[in-house]
Amino acid sequence: MPVAVWGFSHRHVNSAGCPAAGEFLASPSTTATPTTSRRFTGIQSGSESATAGYYGVTLDNSVKVDLSATTRVGAHKYTFPAGTTSNLSFNTGQTLRTAGASSVSWVDGTTLEGWIDNGGFCSGNEKKSRYYFSATFDRAPLSTGTWGTNAQFVVGRNSSEVTNGNNGFVATFDTTTDRDVEVSVGVSYVSVEGARGNRIAEATSSGTRVPFDQIRAKARDAWNAELGRFEITASAEQRRIFYTQLYKALLSPTIGSDVDGRYTGMDAKTHTADGWNYYQTFSLWDTYRTQATFHALFAKNRTADIVRSMYQARVEGGWFPRWSLGSVETNIMAGDPVSPWIAENFTLGTVPADIADRMWDHLVENATTAPPAGVASVGRQSAAFYLAKGHIPFYPESGSGLGGQFEEYRHGGSATMEFAAADASIGSAAQRLGKTAQAAEFLARGTNWSKLWNPDVTLSGGFKGVVNAVTPDGKFVSVPELSDVTRSGFHEGTPWHYQWMATQDVVGLQQKMGGRDEFVKRLDYYFNQPALQSAPGVSPGSWAAGGSTYYTSIGYNPGNEPMMMNPWLYGFVGEPAKTNDVLAANLNRFPNTPGGGVGNDDLGTLASWYVMASLGIQPVAPGSGIMALNAPKVQAAAITLESGEKLRITAAGAKELLPSYIAGVTVNGKEHTAAWVDVDELRNGGRLDFALSGSKTGLSWATARKDWIPSVSAPRKATPVIVPGADLTAIAGREKTVEVARVTFAGAAEPITATVSWAGKDPVAATVTEDNGAWVISSTSTFPAAGTVRGVVSIASASNTPRFSPALFEPTSANLTVVVGAAPVDPPVKPPVTPPVVLPVNPPVDAGVTVVPPTTGTVKATSGLADTGMAPMVFSLTLAALAAIALGSALVIRRKRANS
Questions:
Q1: Can you tell me whether residue 282 is helix, strand or coil?
Q2: How far apart are CA 242 and CA 137, in angstroms?
Q3: Which long-range CB contacts under 8 A does 37-43 form with residues at least 24 apart?
């Protein structure tokens, strides 16, 4: 197939589904009459070459073209055949869209400046924005001229301005001896002065134009530094594919500010980025799924500027954009893609602290209200209906009213799936940020996809039930399986494809499909697992042929965004090995060719998907921090993060064309049995080591229920029962440990913490011990006075739940009552009396003495003649008086006269 080009323009949108931009088209020719309109010139077979920062080709007219760039300058070098009619035509009236007004002026002997009004993308907003240029040649041309709307070249006329249509400038060179012509083109979205300033700052040195070869070398070095942060071990073929995709993942969004910081905002006014770069052109419907994570993980500093740019877009434009092209909101695609994009950046810590609170408030506002009148973005037009009914009403595109006005309504089915995923992403991010009330609200909305489930539909394969669009009055729109969007209400896919786009609630999806086993059967049918087993690494014929073949197959479409996370669904149900069967076939669809991929890359979306899948990780639920795991396609990788820390990945034995399977994983040196890892384990560096197998037979990694990928909108719950202790008693003034309560669960005992508070005082930690599947809560307390004391025992979950997940149960309490008795009172103690002791001069000799310890501190001595009936004589002795008798303690002495 012959290959031809119109020429070489400056602004590009990386592999989107519709043409856009393409301003200031340079076309070399060698004819007597130069090119004044867009026309194809063939390229010589095998002459194309490309590396990061460079493109070269030789045209059929024998002109060799070399292109490179700085951040804001396009660098051209044209090597003409020897001759005197070597022309460079600069077309300002034709772009990849339909240009509006344009102006071009020959400023001096080597400089050309002007502007082009251009805009529009797909079927969205056709509003135009102005693109400025300042170009300088390495030498003066032999002659110059312009053309206008009639496309007639006029030699010697050095300026032309039109309101629309053809327009341009020609410089003709004598290349008889010096065959090279170089051009440096500064561009700006602000002004001609800005374009000139950018060119001078980035393509001159000490007032002299920097030669092409130096610019090319600097571009090569810059890209080598960026791509070189990823060191992989793989075959030469695989390395070329990997680095091509890595390059594409980093191309967008693009810098829109000049070297002095000025940029044109979403309000079409000039603003200044002080100390940071303003980024623009956001393909959010695509990039929120993969690239947002990729950038936040691996280009954190740049991402902070990108996020700040999004914040400024909201401040200056009055609402967050949906799909912005430069400073123009195109409003194409349905759903609410900016919400999961922002939620993911909150989760990965790339929202600058000084704007975080306001950006969060804007995010919640964006997800709960329709935009005010007068802003360009359509936002969530159906916000009120959606919040009330849980779905977006479907209005046919061909009908009058809302379906004809807004994609959101004519794509009511797919847009509802998008809203539910977006809400879950906000809920997950809110939970990680400690905003638990908002988290609960938005996570619950993540189940709204189920409002579309029509259980009465019979599908191919004999399966029952699928998602259907729902009309404003609540009726399902049930149409044949391969109906296009105008009938089904599902954009760029069928209900068969969109039924899987509920990774936030796979638990609920299994329930709708009839349970886990029925879910797996349907998933196997969708991917055509029998074909994958019989021809490993080969895409089954039942899969969609290309990314844009949306309505020709009910099978997996590996090149379109809503289906990108489908392979990892197996990790949600304990069959992670099958993920690798699908991925081996999918990753093989990215060849070592100029196209280099499957479907539209959509500004780095599929490229980011490819790079992360090749490394063995993939985000599957925005905002949650869940990174699903798969067998890597590379043997090893060492990625240097911008902080200087390294993320190291090893996967000895990884296969490049056939599936490999995970036998085990360690994360930072610890065994890891789950099918996913939290992004916090990766974003500051760390280590992932995969043990791989060529066969899935006998493998058990991540098959246990506890190791499945969790559903953020169906978090695991537990219900504790607190049974307060009965007849709690204590003695005033005495410390006592009391069993105040027992806690049981319907299933296994979940870890808890407990506190006890008495009489309204501050709670204190209680002791929790296990007893036959129940938790026993004990508290040690001292009550100062007798009476009835009221208290409260409170428990909270101590389970190590993921950061995106609410606690297993809300803190709960039970009332306590303890009866405090009075302490027993001892008999009063009389103070000792010490009267003089009078003893007989000649006391009788005692026949015997019985010493008995007294019951009080008073020592009593009793003496008498018991056998004679004499009244006993009682007298007291002090302890001191008895010290010489015995023991130094109080004694009772009984005397008995001996019998006569």
A1: strand
A2: 37
A3: 37/91, 37/94, 37/151, 37/166, 38/6, 38/7, 38/91, 38/94, 39/6, 40/4, 40/5, 40/6, 41/4, 41/5, 41/6, 41/7, 42/2, 42/3, 42/4, 43/3, 43/4, 43/5
Interval 834-851 mean pLDDT: 47
d(C-alpha 160, C-alpha 167), whole Å: 7
Contact criterion met (CB below 8 Å) for 488 and 411: no
Question: Is the whole-model pTM more than 0.85?
Answer: yes
> Measured between alpha carbons, how far is 145 from 616 in angstroms, rounded to an integer?
57
Q: Is-contact 49 216, C-beta < 8 A?
A: no
H/E element, 607: helix 605-615
Q: Are 546 and 538 in contact (CB under 8 A)?
A: no
Cα 577 from Cα 696, distance rounded (Å): 6
**577-587 vs 516-527: helix axis angle to the nearest 10?**
20
Q: What is the 3-state secondary structure (H, E, C) of 89-146?
A: EEECCCCCCCCCCEEEEECCCCEEEEEEEEECCCCCCCCEEEEEEEEEECCCCCEEEE
Q: How is residue 843 annotated by DSSP?
A: P
- Structure-block tokens of residue 26: 């340079």
Mean pLDDT value of segment 813-823: 95
The per-residue pLDDT for range 606-629, each reduced to its tens digit, is: 999 999 999 999 999 999 999 999
For residue 679 the two structure tokens come to 């992004």
Mean pLDDT taken over the chain: 91
d(CA 516, CA 533): 21
What residues are paired with 478 via a beta bridge? Answer: none
Separation of alpha carbons 211 and 203, rounded Å: 8
Which pLDDT score is estimated for 886?
A: 35
Q: Average of pLDDT values for 626-644?
A: 97
Q: If you search the block for the tokens 């844009």, which residue do you land on?
A: 548
Name the token pair of 655. Answer: 């296969």
d(CA 13, CA 282): 10
- Selection from 8, 19, 11 nearest residue 330 by Cα: 19
Residue 127 CA: distances (Å) to CA of 23, 120, 376: 15, 6, 10
- Compute the residue count for the chain: 900
Beta carbons within 10 angstroms of residue 126's beta carbon: 13
Q: What is residue 888's predicted lDDT score, i.e. its pLDDT?
A: 34
Q: pLDDT grade, residue 852 (50/70/90)?
A: very low
Whole-number percent of the chain with pLDDT over 90: 84
Q: In what order do the strands lie in the sheet with 767-771?
A: 720-724, 736-745, 774-781, 767-771
